[in-house]
Amino acid sequence: MGVDGYMRNDVKTSKILKALSNSMRIMILRSLHRHGSLSFSELMRTLGMDPRRDTGRFGYHLKQLTGLGIITVDRVTGEYRLTEVGKYVVELMDKLNELVRKEKRQMLVRTSFPGMEEFSKDHIIEALTREANMPHRLAEEIALELEKRLLKLNIKYLTASLIRELINAILVEKGYEEYRHALTRLGMPVYDARQLVEGEYIPLYMGFNNTLYIAGRAVLREYALLRALPQYVADAYLSGLIHIPGLGKWLLYPDTICHDPRLFLMGYYGTVSSSLPFLPWKKASTLKEALGIILRMLLAYAPVTGRHQVVDHFNFLIAPYIRGIPVEDVARELRLFIEVLSQICMSTNTDVVLSLDLGASKHLLSSELWRGTEFRDYLVESLIAFKAFIIALKDECDNNGLPLKPLIYVKLYDDALQNEEFKDVLNLVLNVSKNYGLLTYVNMKADWQGQDVIYDGDGLRLDAKECRSMENLTFRTGLLGSVSVNLPRVIASSTRDEDEIMRRLESAIESSLVALSKKREIISRRLRFNHLPLLSREILGTPYFQVERSAMVLNLVGLIDAVSLFSDALPHEMSDARAFMIRILRRSTNFMYDIGGPELVLSMGIVAVDDENRRFAEMDYRKYPEIRKALRGRRAPYYLNDYAHLPVPLRDLVKFLGLIQNYARGGHIANISLAEPPPSEEALFRFLCELTKNRIGLVTFSRDLTFCKVCSKLIGGYHSRCPICSFSGSQLVHYGKLRLYYELIDFSPYGKKAEFLDRYRYIIL
Predict the structure, then answer these.
(1) Which of 97, 170, 257, 754 has its CA 20 to 30 A from that of 614?
(2) What separation in angstroms does the CA of 453 have from each of 304, 388, 412, 474, 693?
(3) How is the chain split into domains, by residue range?
(4) Which tens digit of pLDDT belongs to each residue from 285-307?
(5) 3-88 and 231-254+479-668 share one fold
(6) 705-708 vs 732-736, strand pairing mode
(7) Pairing between β-strand 601-606 and β-strand 308-311 as defined by DSSP bridges
């Protein structure tokens, strides 16, 4: 190229540089670079110019840029866009600006890896496109705006969290809410973290569990609300319309696993794994080995269980190992088993349910728990195992105080209440019930109960028929999760028009089922990707935990208060109130099945799993005057699912429990608090017979208990002063049972303590 050519290029370059000295022209170039192509009016509107006032001036600047070949106009569409020269000019301006900024002040970022690195706009663009799936042009715009704001900050160094907060602020200002959700950082406030690690006061919502567990749960709770669940479902949860129990780990694991100990006892699980040292792998040949294998199984599966592990038919499972052993020796081994199992439950923060069968001979002879071995071979031993277990439980209570865990369920089959063969064992069972209230009864005689059924520690129910079990047993199934609906809120937030109430209820149910479906999807994916190897490992050709056979429960919480709000009467007082309650249960069940689809195992329960009856009531109490009126007379706000707090005659109570449990196939708890002194075994037996005749599926008796540390005695009743040694205050520990398990009432929040004290105590004669 000759000298003239260089001179001509220099002249053109100088004209371009001169054109860039005008801020309006720079804004035009940047706007076209950001949007790609714009019409004349769109370009003016983007730059905030008034067409009536600025058209001439704006057209002049466009003409200058077009004449220099920096922008061009499409003759067909009339839209302006950058030429290749224009794109290069914008990129050159960005590089020049970055060099100037670096000369002026170097921005360092403290990363989380850890380390220090120089701030780079390109890193921000890359992060926005990767994490939020943001279009590249929009990412460039956000990164440029971020860079401008950061340069105005008088700060020694930047942090990744500060940069993320500024980006989210920019996104909120520009209306990009969906990208803000994707980029939100999960964690807990510094104050809460400090209190958790070294503070004197731990916020009540954190509890008193393992520190790492609490911190991780806080992150996962935010992830569930911000990312995993749709926004309208998260809003329903935060507003108190629905409740997801244990949201911090709800998405990670099934809530309840019903084990198949046969596979471990018979040595089907394979060889020992160095990564899972507690996993049983040898075939059991003695009672001590069998009990040890069950303990190791429960210990191994505790980290992958959300809430409960269930061991069903426990006395039949250990029956083959006690032949020829005196009942006293069996009881001694079982007492040690109970002590160790209690420690496992406490240390792993999971509950274990042991179910024992009484009178199951006819019912279970058609099933085969042991491959190649029928039940009839061990019927006598199963009864001995049952008796030995109750003796061991009674000895533990008499000598070491009240074992809070595990939960013990007694399944009553066929003629267990009439057959003389079971009379001695049944008297022993009733003695433990009236003195300690530790046993829960499952009425297998109810016609709606099914051939085999499990209840978890919350009272949620799974039927073998509902989970499509080929074996008519619930082994290797479970409960994936549950969601609760605030039924009084549905009533209070609507008019008294029943159609509107049902529409609002169906909307809440739909949100709940979306959450449950999302959990099933995530659990299935985690199993497929082998994130839960204990559950996904194949045994005898199928995964150990079978998701497709496991159930999900929708809970309607506050049923009694909801009916009272609508009808101004309790269900047992007026037929209209009772009819309205039944319509709610039927409509909810039908709607749940209609939108749930055939692939989901769904059922409806009436259980407060996570004390959500108090959370709902406390939120509604401040907002709805009619709620305040309905809750008047209670020591604290809480909703009722049954008549436990109302002085209803026993006859009406039994009829109500039978009616509601027939509809609540997902679970309902009949917890009957006993007045002092407790009834005799004969009176309790008669009342239990009446309960089973009325088709009540799950019932437990609870008793107020006070433990004196001075005289080491467990005393019936809630005492402020020990009736034996007269000590009071911190020397006394009070136990109470709101649902199925005992808790230390003294350390409970005020609302739970108030709910316990308000319960009505029944005299059974």
Answers:
(1) 257
(2) 22, 24, 12, 7, 18
(3) 3-88, 105-183, 186-223, 231-254+479-668, 256-455
(4) 999 999 999 999 999 999 999 99
(5) no
(6) antiparallel
(7) unpaired
643-660 residues labelled b (16+ CB within 10 A) or e (exposed): bbbeebeeeebbbbbbbb
Mean per-residue pLDDT over the chain, rounded: 84
Q: What is the pLDDT of residue 9?
A: 56
Please state the φ and ψ torsions of residue 671, each to the nearest 5 degrees: -105, 110
Per-residue b or e along 150-189, where b marks 16 or more CB atoms closer than 10 Å to that residue's CB: beeeeeeebeeeebeebbbebbeeeebeebbbebbeeebe
Half-sphere exposure of 622 (CA within 13 A, CB side): 7
Which is it for strands 538-539 and 542-543: parallel, antiparallel or unpaired? antiparallel
Handedness of CA 624, 630, 635, 640 (dihedral sign): negative
**Which architecture, in CATH terms, is 3-88?**
Orthogonal Bundle (1.10)
* 231-254+479-668 to CATH, choices 3.20.20.140, 3.40.50.300, 1.10.1040.10, 3.20.70.20: 3.20.70.20
Q: Output the pTM of the full model.
A: 0.78
What angle in degrees, to the nearest 10, is found between the helix axes of 160-174 and 136-151? 120
Q: Are 692 and 445 contacting, i.e. CB atoms less than 8 angstroms apart? A: yes
Task: Return the pLDDT at 371.
Answer: 47
Phi, psi (deg, nearest 5) at residue 467: -90, 15
At residue 674, the pLDDT reads 95
pLDDT surpassing 90 at residue 451: no
- The amino acid occupying position 147 is E
How big, in percent rounded to 5, are the helix, strand and coil portions of the chain? 50, 15, 35
Average pLDDT over residues 327-338: 96
Total residues found in the chain within this entry: 765
Torsion of CA 356, 359, 364, 366, to 10 degrees: 170
What residues have CB less than 8 Å from 226, skipping those under 6 apart? Answer: 181, 184, 186, 234
Which residues does 382 contact at the CB level (< 8 Å), separation at least 6?
315, 316, 319, 357, 360, 375
Whose CA is closest to 221, among 194, 256, 195, 184? Answer: 184
Which of the four pLDDT bands, split at 50, 70 and 90, describes residue 195?
A: low
Residue 373 token pair: 């071995």
Of 189-193, 207-211, 664-668, the poorest mean pLDDT is in: 207-211
C-alpha to C-alpha distance for 94 and 97, rounded to whole angstroms: 5
- pLDDT at residue 730, as a whole number: 83
Per-residue pLDDT tens over the stretch 25-64: 888 888 888 788 888 888 888 777 777 777 877 888 888 8
User: At a CB cut-off of 8 Å and minimum separation 6, what does 75 contact?
Assistant: none
Amino acid making up residue 211: T
The token pair that represents 80 in the structure block: 């302006």
- Show the tokens assigned to 695: 């088709």
How many other C-beta atoms are found inside a 10 Å radius of the C-beta of residue 245? 20
Residue 207 above 60 pLDDT? no
Which of 188, 307, 329, 186 lies closest to 258 in space, CA to CA?
307
Q: What stretch of H or E contains 273?
A: none
